[in-house]
Amino acid sequence: MYLLVAVMVISTFAQVFFRYVVFYSIPWSEELSRYALVWLSAIGASYGIKRNVHVAVDAIVEALPAEIQSLVAKINYFLIACFGLVLLIYGVKVSKLNMGQLSPSLHIPIGLVYAAMPVGGLLIIIHALALLSVSQEAQEEVEA
Predict the structure, then answer these.
(1) Taking each helix axis from N to C terminus, what angle separates 2-17 and 29-51, rounded to the nearest 10 degrees?
(2) CA–CA dist 123, 41 (Å, integer)
(3) What contacts 24+ positions apart, CB below 8 Å, involve 19-22?
(4) For 53-98, how does the pLDDT look when each residue is reduced to its tens digit (9 = 90+)?
(5) For 107-126, what is each residue's pLDDT tens digit?
(6) Alpha-carbon Rg of the chain, whole angstroms?
(7) In which domain, by residue range, is 132 found?
(8) DSSP, res 120
(9) Which of 50, 43, 53 is nearest to 5 (CA)?
(10) Interhelix angle for 116-143 vs 29-51, to 10°?
């Protein structure tokens, strides 16, 4: 993730420098920054799930008994994994469909940019299932 942020910062800084100091615009820098942001968003979403830091309103869930809270958490992680599966399946289709189209400035297949969707979906599935199993293990420890 840090590499993608560095790519975004460096390419944007280079574009600003060249545009206002050298008076020459780099044609590919904006495209590179945008594609890095797309990949960063896909990977960052899965990282947010892994760290359980996404925004949530859990006042109602916290008011429920512990057993129901555990059930709600399991359902939540299951639904997140299902969403990741949708991203994975349709992301592969969209990525394959666009492999023949090249980006305007970088001349890379657009399918590689769209590949962020299935990669992010797979990572979301992995992290959601890991949290689901941790949730089950924690529940089993409480019951024992």
Answers:
(1) 150
(2) 12
(3) none
(4) 887 778 888 888 988 888 988 999 999 999 999 999 999 999 999 9
(5) 999 999 999 999 999 999 99
(6) 20
(7) 2-143
(8) H
(9) 43
(10) 10
Q: What is the DSSP letter of 144?
A: -
Q: How many CB atoms lie within 10 A of CB 52?
A: 12
Show the tokens assigned to 10.
């460096």
Q: Write down the pLDDT at residue 102.
A: 95
Handedness of CA 125, 117, 30, 103 (dihedral sign): positive
pTM, to two decimals: 0.84
Cα distance between residue 37 and residue 82, in whole Å: 24
Cα-to-chain-centroid distance, residue 130: 16
Query: What is the 3-class SS of 4-41, one letter each residue?
Result: HHHHHHHHHHHHHHHHHHHCCCCCCHHHHHHHHHHHHH
Residue 137 DSSP SS3: helix
When divided into structural domains, the chain yields a total of: 1
- Per-residue tokens: 114: 């769209």
Q: Percentage of the chain with pLDDT > 70?
A: 93
